[in-house]
Amino acid sequence: MFSKALAPEYQGALSALSVNSSLTDVLAAATEQMAAARRAGDAPETARAALALAEAHRRLGHVEAADRAWKEGYRTARSAGDLSAMAWALWSGGTLARQRGALALAFRLLRYAADMGKRGGDIVAHGYSLAGLAETGRIQGDYEAVGALHDELLAEARKRGEARHTVWALEGIAQMHRNSGRYDTAYELFEEAAGIAAGADDRRGHAWALRGLADIVSVRDGDTGRALELLSRAEAGCREMDLSSALAYNHKMRGNVLYRAGRYAEALEMYEQALAEFRAMDEPRGEALSRLGAVKARARLGADPARTAAELDELGGILDRIGLRHARAMVDKAHAELGLPVEESHR
């Protein structure tokens, strides 16, 4: 049995906030609470409010404000000698670094966070930080290194009945299976994640699971209509909670579904919309993936092959610098799919 999904990043006076609270509401509450805690000279409460503020800004795509908030939270927690609050601030900073494509910094901050959580006896901060390390490795494409950690974290989350972390782990493992071509296994895992998220009222996790299901239904079954319906359901949840990043990835996936169906003009429109959304929130991974989709769609619509090849080579270099191995392989596949040579210097 799983309990209702909780949001441990909302702490202290903000602990009444729900995992499904609108991010604009979280932002307002955290800003007010942070000001009150500062006036009272309450360092631990200031650090907790800074954490919620950082996470709201990050998920809304306000990266500079998120960066300032987590750093202020860390400094405040350190001045109070609060190891738990320091761990949570580092977790937030590491998550933001991953979102911005700074994977080496993400690994460093999340390792510090895991260690700080362990030293401070905060098993939830420790677990979230290990999950962050696992997700960073998965996004990088290093499945061998992080597959076992995903499995371990899933087992622990199931044992404790933690719905939100169970859903996260299932979705991560499902994505690795999907990217390895094991579509049936991926579908089963995404389906289980969707069911647990719905039962625990975890709308964020449910939206990501629906996106995963839509991807499988499209690539495995060729069922464009059902895939688009699943994405529409997920989009509704994203809009309810102001989930800017999740919404942009939803639009990028809609582009993928339309592209696979041969609806290239519609796909290009969705890729360009997602690209603008990712650029607005300074999320280079999503930006690169949207650009890749747009380049392929334009090629199908008759773009000059030499220009297409040059754009793909540029994207390959960007993905190499970020360190996204799976996404980098997608660029080489695009060369082959479109009948274009691959530059040896970017392999």
Q: Tell me the overall shape.
A: globular
Query: What is the helix fraction of residues, given as a range?
Result: over 70%
Low-confidence segments: none
Main sheet: strands, sense, barrel: none
- Strand proportion: under 5%
Provide the residue-averaged pLDDT. Answer: 92
Subcellular location: Cytoplasm
Family: Belongs to the Rap family.
Pfam families: TPR_12, TPR_2
Keywords: Cytoplasm, Repeat, TPR repeat
Explain what the structure shows.
The chain has a domain at 263-347. The mean pLDDT is 92. It is built from 16 helices and no strands. Helix 12 runs antiparallel to helix 13 and helix 15 packs antiparallel against helix 16. The protein is mainly alpha-helical and 347 residues long. It starts with 22 loop residues before the first helix and ends in a 10-residue tail after the last helix. The chain is globular.
Topology:
Elements (H helix, E strand, L loop, with lengths): L22 H18 L2 H18 L2 H18 L2 H17 L3 H17 L3 H18 L2 H18 L2 H17 L3 H17 L3 H19 L2 H18 L2 H17 L3 H17 L3 H17 L4 H18 L2 H13 L10
Helix pairs in contact: 1-2, 2-3, 2-4, 3-4, 4-5, 4-6, 5-6, 6-7, 6-8, 7-8, 8-9, 8-10, 9-10, 10-11, 10-12, 11-12, 12-13, 12-14, 13-14, 14-15, 15-16
